[in-house]
Amino acid sequence: ERVLELARRLSRGEALGTQEDEEEEEGEMCQRHREPLELFCKEDGALLCAICRESRAHRAHAVLPLPEAARDFEEQIQAGLQTLKDERDKLLELREAEMRRIW
Which residue intervals define the domain B box-type in the entry (predicted)? Predict the structure, then answer.
């Protein structure tokens, strides 16, 4: 996301190295509390700061540290990717068999 945002700014001729850029480098911040977003709420699929975590809205929810949530999602994506690769291989084999049958 950061690379795309920098590319957009460059294409619009905007200057880089502003205070906003420095804040983005430190990590995303909670809009409400100006605290770093370090947690992930599994029920809501939302990034949370420590203060939001203790709010009524998320207190009873399962919350993970951001790196752990990222690993979980990466594992899910890799598993889905492997499934798609396996299905693609099967389809290619069927296509090849059908092409041989037609010839």
Answer: 25-66
Q: Report d(CA 68, CA 2) in Å as an integer.
A: 21
User: Can you list the domains of the chain with their CATH numbers?
Assistant: 27-102 (3.30.160.60)
Under DSSP, the state recorded for 37 is -
Predicted confidence (pLDDT) per residue in 47-56, tens digit: 888 888 888 8
| 82, 87, 88, 93 alpha-carbon torsion, rounded to 10° | 130
The amino acid at 98 = E
3-state secondary structure of 84: helix
- Hunting for tokens 């598993």 — which residue is that? 79
**What pTM value is reported for the model?**
0.56
| Per-residue pLDDT reduced to its tens digit, 1-20 | 666 676 667 666 665 555 45
Size (the chain), residues? 103
Q: Please give the radius of gyration of the chain, using alpha carbons only, rounded to the nearest integer.
A: 22
